[in-house]
Design brief:
Structural class: mainly alpha
Number of helices: 23
Radius of gyration: 22 Å
Oligomer: single chain
Order of helices and strands: HHHEEHHHHHHHHHHHHHHHHHHHH
Shape: globular
Distance between the termini: 37 Å
Low-confidence stretches: 1-7
Helix content: over 70%
Strand content: under 5%
């Protein structure tokens, strides 16, 4: 018996340890000892990450079955179980969530000075809830975690955000909640259709007509497309990013957007495979519009955060495109893109945060010649900007390249359209870099800038190492997901109607 079968409790600890530490921080809740709150948050986040590491070291790559399973009755009357498990598709995201949480805690160390305990607590609770989404093997449990993530993020934007934070938080909450209500209807339908079971694996085997599948497919599309977010339901994201504190932007881009993309692989494709094939063109069209049109929108942004927010939408377009070309290279490429985007987008938002903490402006026009006063920082920023463009050798390249190859194998012209993103991505990323970092020192603010301190340097170095490792050697990531992706595609290829 492998570690995967014996590791009972690991997933529960991964979920509830950060939540418990977060609640403890909220209970502290006073600003008279912010140092203790910071250290408690750091210890809690590092311990939470430590718990997730055995999930990879003990992971059996030879099976597509759920591993580290826990299954306890929760609401016995309605046959709802506290059922957890991870496979090759979800396991990396558990680690990514715990890893990014440490980054956020360290990044906020000196920046957040008011309500420190609540800020750290909100992020740790959010971290545990997001891990819950990736581990849930019961439909209702998934829905509870999926919706619960909205609450801490709503508070993070609404309390620590910018001047229009309440508007942005409200818009974020309404958009994502409205989409999810249709998913709840779909889950209730599946519950009755399966004879009173919320087990997601059982739903994958249901004999559904094409009409039923189509209704389910579009109900799930409503929930997951808003979360990704796909064009045209993307408008909440730039507002949320601009108003969110740096840590909020990092978690939103690195993890929360992935919850929607993950939902497509866990629900839409396996439960409604025929409808997924039938309406794949809808997703492909939405994805390509995101890749091309949103890339052009990013070009004209004057606010750095808005520019990176739009670039996130374009990059996530690659993910959904990869999933719905239905080949292994595409799905694996989409997953690799999700992980690498987690590192790169986190670094991009943290870099903007470094400048904002010093100058208190996100406008590109407020800068110029930063390389003269912050050479170390400018070097890191250039590396992450190149990764954002999809430069070979960085994590940003691998996923996009896999998706483009997969798309070309299905239809050359679709692949060619997707490949234009590499041009527009380079255009908006390098154009922003040129105006902010190169040239003469633009003003007094830039002249007074101080280069990275040890804490900031460490954060940038860790993210740079992760991005570089993924770009040079993506094999460990693709090896873990290979069997699960193959099984999923086999399942989706076999029609339930025949």
């Amino acid at each position: 018996m492998g570690l995967g079968q014996m590791g009972f409790g690991l997933l529960s600890v991964s979920i509830w340890l950060p939540i418990a530490v977060g609640i403890l921080l909220l209970a502290l809740g006073r600003d008279d000892n912010p140092g203790a709150a910071r250290w408690l948050a750091l210890v809690g986040s590092v311990a939470s990450f430590g718990v997730t590491v055995p999930l990879i070291t003990g992971f059996d790559k030879g099976t597509a079955a759920l591993q580290f399973q826990e299954n306890l009755p929760w609401i016995a009357r309605f046959n709802v179980n506290y059922h957890l498990g991870v496979d090759g598709i979800s396991v990396w995201f558990v680690l990514l969530t715990a890893f990014i949480t440490i980054i956020v805690v360290v990044a906020a160390w000196q920046v957040i000075t008011e309500r420190v305990a609540q800020y750290m607590g909100a992020f740790l609770i959010l971290s545990g809830l997001m891990v819950g989404v990736f581990c849930a093997a019961d439909g209702l449990l998934f829905y509870v975690f999926f919706e619960a993530t909205l609450i801490p993020m709503y508070i993070i934007i609404g309390v620590w955000g910018g001047p229009r934070r309440v508007y942005a938080a409200f818009k974020f909450f309404l958009y994502t909640l409205a989409g999810s209500l249709l998913m709840l209807v779909a889950l209730i339908f599946l519950y009755y259709k399966s004879g009173g079971s919320f087990d997601i694996a059982a739903w994958h085997k249901l004999p559904l007509t094409l009409h039923q599948q189509a209704l389910l497919f579009f109900a799930f599309l409503a929930a997951f497309s808003v979360k990704v977010p796909m064009w045209p339901v993307h408008t909440w994201l730039p507002d949320a990013h601009v108003e969110a504190p740096t840590g909020g932007s990092v978690v939103l881009a690195a993890i929360m957007l992935k919850l929607g993309a993950y939902g497509f692989l866990r629900f839409s494709m396996p439960i409604a495979p025929d409808a997924s094939h039938e309406y794949a063109w809808v997703i492909i069209a939405m994805s390509l519009i995101a890749v091309v049109y949103i890339g052009l929108v990013a070009l004209v942004q004057q606010d750095m955060k808005k520019l990176v927010a739009y670039s996130s939408i374009a990059h996530m377009g690659f993910v959904t495109l990869g999933f719905f070309v239905f080949n292994e290279l595409g799905v694996s490429g989409g997953l690799v893109q999700m992980i690498s985007h987690g590192f790169v987008s986190a670094a991009m938002f943290l870099a903007i945060g470094v400048l904002y903490d010093r100058v208190h402006s996100r406008d590109i026009a407020s800068y110029g010649g930063v390389v003269n006063t912050m050479p170390k920082f400018a070097a890191f920023a250039l590396f992450f900007t190149m990764a954002n463009c999809g430069l070979p050798g960085t994590g940003g390249f691998v996923g996009e390249w896999m998706v483009i190859l997969a798309t070309v194998s299905v239809n050359f012209w679709l692949g060619a359209i997707a490949a234009t993103a590499l041009i527009s991505g380079a255009a908006y990323s390098l154009w922003m870099y040129k105006r902010v970092y190169f040239g003469k020192v633009a003003n007094e603010h830039v002249r007074k800038l101080i280069d990275l301190d040890g804490r900031e340097f460490a954060i940038m170095a860790v993210l740079a190492a992760a991005t570089l490792f993924m770009g040079v050697y993506p094999k460990p990531f693709t090896d873990v997901m290979h069997v699960s992706v193959t099984e999923l595609l086999k399942h989706v290829a076999v029609s339930k109607l025949h």
